[in-house]
Specification:
The complex is a heterodimer.
Chain A: E1 5-10, H1 14-25, E2 30-33, H2 41-44, E3 86-87, H3 117-120, H4 122-126, H5 136-150, E4 152-153, E5 167-168, H6 175-187, E6 192-193, H7 227-237, E7 241-244, E8 247-254, E9 260-267, E10 273-283, H8 287-296, E11 322-325, E12 344-346, E13 365-371, H9 387-398, E14 401-409, E15 418-426, E16 432-437, H10 442-461, E17 550-552, H11 567-586
Parallel strand pairs in A: 1-2, 1-10, 2-7, 3-16, 4-5, 10-17
Antiparallel strand pairs in A: 6-12, 8-9, 9-10, 11-14, 12-13, 13-14, 15-16
Helix pairs in contact in A: 1-7, 1-11, 5-11
Chain B: H1 9-20, H2 26-42, H3 64-77, H4 86-89, H5 91-100, H6 106-121, H7 129-144, H8 153-168, H9 171-177
Helix pairs in contact in B: 1-2, 3-5, 3-7, 5-8, 6-8, 7-8
The chains are: A alpha/beta, B mainly alpha.
Chain lengths: 590, 200
């Protein structure tokens, strides 16, 4: 007889890992299903310099067309041939995904900022969209709990728009970041160290960061938070968790009483279909995969009495930015500038209170800056000239590289941005894929234009100079921060240099002149939370309004993007939802 | 060498003590300690060696005369001076290696055949060393003067781009020339403590 579980968790990314840990620690028998392969950081993650690889990070020409990522990390990304998706003709969107144990937690940017009250209640303030069904007071204890477990380095600053948390000591600033901080002070702007789920001291039996800067290729020691380094070991120690990798979930199965009975998955290599049952089903397979599963599980979509499932898709506004050099640093000694992939942050400065309200656009954005040496000097090919003088100029500028980018810009929620099942295209296992409809609106463009103006002001105040041929987003690449526009494609000429991964934020994916707006791999929405079941799919605990034992963790619940990176909020929502699930189970009401 | 970025002996001892308290992490810390100590002992070139395959590599994509011309061109672009150049980095060999593996992208292979034809037609193959230097100078003019034209300019840009990548992604370029310090085990991160960087 097949084993029956208390809960099935679909997906092993940040939220799936947390849910598996919290539920198994509470004594539930949990099954985690992961569509991709298993990962062992000690064996699979290495420090690999470009010259140690035959193709110097680019892979054999043509090979990486099939994968996202670079030669270093494509194994923890996704096989695009096995997992296609389609888009409407006017869509400019790249869906950044991973399929492996740990998912995107293995190579995320680690930025861990709390959303503020003004973001949870944005609609009440400016009249657009819908408020969250939770407020900051609801979320604060869960932010505390998550931060204390994952470990976030940061500094408490008291900025109202950038709530402080339970921080570990900050990572020191490099020279470029010190100059950018001085520029902020001169401008009278708020600034702080980038807040990162990256350890600066021993924490929960995990070692501190060793400043290699290799984060997006997988951390070999678990100094950055990921499922495999942090939540999964705790869950496994309970003895209550079974993990099945290479298990592609195809649908949620329902019983005759409108309750989720379990799921059906397909064994990745044998193609065998397997049913498993549980008292609770938790979808945590990433925002859009969760929605895809709900669309696959019932005609018209599971738990869709509100007719909002699939709609209000968002991704934080990215694109733009400034790259160049800080003359103060030219000709200086080589330093370990990119060893922490951190930076400095300027919290949102617009539309968070009456004093900062603007008439030309609503909502806000956060900026980051960093600089200094990087593994490869992306600007080199664009620097005119050749010979010894050119080499010396490269070396002089190499340590003076500098960059400002948008960390997160709020994209407005619009019903016409949605996902649906493609009627024709199926994945490797015969499961219909998503068709994505995604465009930006005028407010998104105005917000990005304002960011661009502000970023240039910051860069100028720091004394920065740009170089013709580098472009706005420029060829400078830092691990964990934006790379180049073609970083995960398989360019066969070398103008762009190599990539150190695909965990990029705010980087144009399309032709930048035609589509200056870009995504940030922060996709959210498509099953938003609502106080009223008529207006959304999920309640404030991320449980579906319609099905009492179906929870959905990820970015699905977000009614708006806010201007902070979403992962910390997703984790806090997961912790809060799991509390509710356990309460529900205790009451025997699964 | 910038010693600020290196762990002190005290840092290393501190790490060793922490390692003892961490189950399963001892192996990692042993590697960390060794890497850090090697770094101390071996000066600025403690990064891993380059795999030897380019040293004995025989060109497969280019004809011998084209390969000789390409080698000369890359060495004019990135000469050996007080730091290594394209010769030590085996840039021409690396370019050949990538192109021979580019069967799936025939457009790239065509572009390079055209570039070598252009190089031959402007007389680069037949020129002596001084003549070749003069030709590269002429071919590069449009890069600095938008009104200038040269039939070999696209070949110059193509070779420069790939040569730049081949050089700065090699050990000779990345470590021995630029002194890149990342992708290693470090006990601390070097904080900026320069007074001139604390003001603008």
């Amino acid at each position: 007889m097949a084993k029956s579980y208390d809960a099935i968790v679909v997906g092993s990314g940040a939220c799936g890992g947390w849910a598996a840990m919290q539920l198994s620690k509470a004594g539930m028998k949990v099954l985690m299903l992961e569509a991709g392969s298993s990962v062992d950081p000690a064996k699979d993650f290495h420090h690999t310099l470009l010259y140690q690889m035959e193709y110097r990070g680019k892979g054999k020409p043509g090979f990486l067309r099939r994968y996202s990522g670079s030669e270093q990390n494509y194994r923890i990304m996704i096989d695009n041939q096995e997992n296609p998706y389609t888009t409407s003709p006017d869509t400019v969107y790249h869906w950044g995904r991973s399929r492996c144990l740990g998912g995107r937690s293995l190579h995320w940017a680690r930025a861990s900022d709390r959303m503020a009250e003004y973001e949870f209640k944005a609609a009440s303030r400016d009249g657009y969209g819908m408020d969250w069904a939770v407020n900051y007071a609801d979320m604060s204890p869960y932010y505390d709990r998550v931060e204390r477990f994952i470990g976030v380095s940061g500094a408490a600053e008291g900025f109202p728009q950038f709530p402080d948390g339970a921080f570990l000591p900050v990572m020191p600033l490099n020279c470029a970041e010190a100059i950018f901080t001085a520029a902020c002070k001169s401008l009278g702007w708020p600034t702080t160290h980038r807040r990162l789920a990256q350890l600066t001291r021993m924490h929960n039996n995990r070692p501190p960061c060793h400043y290699c800067g290799n984060c997006v290729n997988g951390c070999d020691v678990g100094a950055m938070f990921s499922t495999v380094s942090s939540t999964l070991p705790v869950a496994m120690r309970t003895g209550n968790l079974d993990v099945r990798t290479d298990s592609v979930v195809a649908r949620v199965r329902m019983d005759s009483e409108n309750r989720a009975r379990g799921v059906t998955y397909i064994e990745r290599y044998t193609m065998k279909s397997v049913d498993v049952d549980a008292k609770f089903v938790v979808l945590a397979a990433s925002t859009l995969e969760n929605t895809r599963l709900m669309l696959l599980s019932a005609r018209g979509g599971l738990a869709n009495s509100s007719n909002t499932l699939g709609h209000y898709m968002m991704d934080q506004v990215g694109g733009g930015g400034v790259s160049g050099f800080l003359p103060k640093l030219k000709g200086g000694p080589s330093r370990l500038d990119d060893g922490k992939s951190a930076g400095v942050t300027v919290p949102n400065m617009v539309n968070f209170d009456k004093k900062t309200a603007r008439k030309d656009f609503i909502r806000g954005y956060v900026m980051n800056a960093t600089g200094g040496q990087s593994e490869y000097p992306r600007f080199a090919s664009a620097l005119p000239g050749y010979g010894s003088a050119w080499k010396k100029e490269i070396k002089s500028r190499y340590v003076a590289q500098a960059r400002v980018w948008i960390a997160g810009g709020e994209m407005l929620a619009r019903k016409e941005n949605f996902v649906e099942l493609d009627p024709e295209v199926k994945d490797h296992w015969g499961i219909p894929v998503l068709n994505i409809h995604f465009t930006h609106c005028d407010n998104d463009r105005k917000l990005l234009a304002h960011f661009q103006q502000t970023a240039e002001e910051w860069f100028r105040k720091a004394g920065g100079e740009t170089m013709q041929g580098m472009g706005r987003s420029g060829p400078v690449g830092f691990p964990g921060a934006p790379g180049s526009p073609d970083a995960d494609t398989n360019r066969t000429t070398a103008d762009s240099g190599p990539s150190r991964g695909a965990a990029r934020e705010g980087e144009p994916r399309a032709k930048s002149k035609e589509h200056p707006l870009a995504g940030s791999i922060h996709e959210v929405g498509t099953a938003r939370m609502s106080a009223n079941p008529k207006h959304g799919v999920l309640n404030s605990f991320c449980r579906t309004h319609d099905i009492a034992n179906l929870y959905v963790f990820g970015g699905n619940a977000f009614p708006s993007t806010g201007d902070k990176h979403p992962t910390l909020t997703m984790l806090a929502l997961t912790a809060r939802g799991c509390d509710q699930l356990l309460e529900q189970a205790k009451g025997g009401s699964a | 060498m910038d010693f600020e970025s290196l762990p002190s002996r005290r840092d290393l001892l501190d790490l060793a003590m922490r390692a003892a308290a961490l189950s399963g992490a001892a192996e990692f810390f042993a590697g960390w300690l060794k890497a850090a100590q090697d770094h101390h002992g071996a000066g600025e070139h403690a990064a891993p060696p380059e795999p030897p395959f380019l040293r004995d590599y025989q060109p497969k994509f280019f004809e011998p005369d084209d390969f000789e011309a390409l080698q000369a061109f890359t060495e004019i672009l990135i000469p050996t001076d007080d730091t290594p150049g394209a010769r030590e980095a085996h840039c021409a060999h690396y370019i050949d290696f990538v192109l021979q593996a580019s069967g799936q992208v025939p457009k790239t292979q065509r572009a390079w055949r055209n570039a070598m034809r252009a190089l031959k037609s402007v007389g680069f193959h037949a020129a002596d060393a001084k003549g070749r230097e003069a030709l590269v100078e002429a071919m590069s003019q449009p890069e600095r003067d938008s009104s200038a034209r040269h039939p070999g300019y696209f070949a110059y840009r193509l070779i420069k781009a790939q040569n730049t990548f081949a050089f700065y992604s090699s050990r000779a370029g990345m470590i021995e020339t630029l002194d890149y310090k990342g992708d290693t085990y470090n006990a601390t991160f070097p904080a900026c403590n320069h007074p001139e960087h604390q003001v603008v």
